[in-house]
Amino acid sequence: MDRIKPKKFWNSRRIGGTVIGVLLASFIVYQFFFADKRSKLNVEVDKLTVSTVKQGEFDEFIAVTGVVQPLKTIQLDAIVGGYVTQKLVEGGNMVKQGDVLLRLENQSLKLNFLQSETEASRLVNDLQNTRQRLRVERFNLQKTLSELDFQIDQARDAHRRNEQLFRDKVIPEADYLKTKREFERLTKQREIEVESQKYQEENAKMQISQLEGTLANTQKNVSLWRQTLDNLVVKAPVSGLLSSMNVEVGSNINQGQNIGQIDDLDGFKMRVGIDEHYISRIFVGLRGSMDFDGKSFPLEIVKIYPEVRSGRFEVDMSFVEGAPVRIKRGQSTPIRLQLGQPSKATLLPVGGFFSDTGGNWVYVVNGDGSKASRRKITLGRKNPEYFEVLEGLEPGEKVITSSYENFGDNEVLEF
Questions:
Q1: What's the rounded Cα separation, in Å, for the pair 64 and 273?
Q2: The pTM is what?
Q3: Are residues 122 and 224 in the same domain?
Q4: Taking the CB of the first residue and of the last residue of the chain, which one, N or C, has fewer CB atoms within 10 A?
Q5: Is residue 393 within 8 Å of residue 378, measured between CB atoms?
Q6: Ranges 5-19, 96-110, 337-351: which has the least confidence
Q7: Are 278 and 197 members of one domain?
Q8: Residue 3 CB-density burial (10 A; 0-12 exposed, 13-18 middle, 19+ buried)
């Protein structure tokens, strides 16, 4: 006899529906609370540059380019103007001190020299004539005084005789007074003659002094004109390489015009261009180094040119221990310019990422290397090889340091 079986609550359909509901609810909870909702982008790891953060010494330096220049360059400027009659040495040749390089012609200078010489000759004649006149006047004075002394002696004798005769009442008073006045007149005349001659001599001496002063100045002027004429012959002021000579025969040169330069090859220096960003950190005495022929040569800044052109300024650096033997003028070579002392730091290699992020964040690769996530960081100093990491990264972590230009705003890169 058939029996009716009671229905089970957990039949297969109800169990299946419950399982599906639980799975669906679990998926919803996962998506809502646990799923990674960050934007993602699939990239090829082979096309990326992945660098490892490390702990080491941060050496603060910048790489600049220096150009070899002579330690001393002498500019040749025309002291006087004129037209070129001879060009004896071409640029690019070695010259010795005193070698004649150019000959100039200037008729106006020659005329001025002749006029100055003529004036000096005239003053010499005037001075000689004045001195001769003074000597003649002295002789005339001696002659006049001698004659007056003779007349005075005669007048004194006559006066004394008449004085005695007048006392003895032998001669009238008129004769006595006549001889007396004659004696006094001659005595006074002598005093006047001596005073007049003294004045004439003082005047002549003053004229001679003035003429001597004028003559001395004129002779100096003649000497200066002669030196000016000598400057029409342009000579090498020092020995060295005549690196340029910017004139030709027949060309006219103005006073002060640059006509060339001589390089003193006894030593060399480096002329270095530096970005204006570093101008506040550059000072005389700052050290650097350059590699040449497999050796390192220390350098030191000796002069700073503060004028900024096209975002750069220049400095001169000297070789501390002597220049390389085979170095040549005009050569360009990299220089490592030290800005500070080495210090311990967390280092991140330099890469193209900085231009896209400004150093504010990077993509950090996870432990299994399957993806890279965006992370905020703080960078400090920079040299051509490394950034100094202040916050956000630890030694041993791997960071994508190539350009982020094609990654957009995605927060996760999957490999």
A1: 7
A2: 0.51
A3: yes
A4: N
A5: no
A6: 5-19
A7: no
A8: exposed
